[in-house]
Amino acid sequence: MIINLPADVNYIINRLQEAGYEAYAVGGCVRDSLLGREPSDWDITTSAKPDEIKALFKPTIDTGIQHGTVTVLRHNRGYEVTTYRIDGEYKDNRHPEEVTFTTSLREDLRRRDFTINAMAYNDNGLVDEFDGIGDIDRKIIRCVGDPDERFGEDALRMMRAVRFSAQLGYMIHEDTRKSVGRLHANLESVSAERINVELTKMLMSDHPEYIRDCYELGITSVVLSELDECMGFAQNNPHHCYDVGEHIIQSLIYSRPDRVLRYALLFHDLGKPECATTDENGVDHFHGHGDRSAEIACDIMHRLKFDNDTIHKVEVLVRYHDWDIEPDKRSVRRALNKLGTELFLLLLEVKQADVAAQSDYKKEEKLERLEQLRSLYDEIIADSECIQIKDLAINGGDLIAMGMQQGPELGQTLNKLLDMVLDDPAMNTRSILMSRAYEIYTDENVTDR
Question: Does residue 93 carry a pLDDT above 70?
Fold first, then answer.
């Protein structure tokens, strides 16, 4: 079994070996190479101590010197080189109290999380002490050694187990699953930022529906309890064939891997349990759930330390996911004005995934309506129709030249002109707009007198 190591990785490994040390590419880069995937980074493990590594390479960065990690810089790229180590006791479910350097590769590999990540490689071949290759063949995510120990060392590994299974389409080994079921409460000690990273990687995978595993294993009870409230919550309504939680999960399947899009779908119906009512015919309704879901989404995203831009975009998409936009140009222009082009197009994708995860009741009609909205959007863009103030045939400078003072009045006038043009794009000419602006200016001045 041969892995084509990058030239810089080969150089670092060979340099260490020539100096009398062992050195291997290790972890995810080996796994991805065996799977035919392009590794995002290359990590190296070695019997050399940090000061010995630094003596062999220039320049270096003390990335995690206390844990034996030195970053070697080659051709403007960093490669983490870490001394074989044995981790001491973990008291915070995250960091070892101390690490002990060792000369044993096996001891270093046995501290790693999953068998598929505990393989090492150099030109002498593959080192696979824990049957990572076998688990790749079996398509299994399995802890190295005792899963309770591995998850006790770093609780986030429980989310990583589901994340790797989603990225690779693998099953989680039964012993590993049972351990997550026992220890998921330890995720309380993990930082919001790290939870965010793993949740995002999972959602961006080819199998975002594997978030169901997070629910079944108890992970979401700690990191996303709002989803748990939706699981099993019935929707006795002709538009639906799943409970709220399963509908959310199914909608993720029908979406492309865009971060904002997938989070909008994950959050879009979280407000339904609070908004549920049942009419005299036994039909469930969820009036106002878009607004409530948007509020919940904002709470979650702030809790998980999302950036403000993502929070804004997801909040808007969740709030308006049920907005019934009429399939006519005027309505589409107004939607574009309200949302902007990027969010309008994302909203159509949210709506399509939402509909795809519903019952067959009026499904074709709903999908046809979305196609009409897309076609109308294409026509509006092709015709360069005005949808924002900047698209008007006049600007603030023209109004000032007419005698209007800078201030709220100017902005209000431009908005009135835009409102007129959104209804009728043919009005977007300089002569018509200047004439109408003069009427507005004159009327307001007369009124003021």
Answer: no
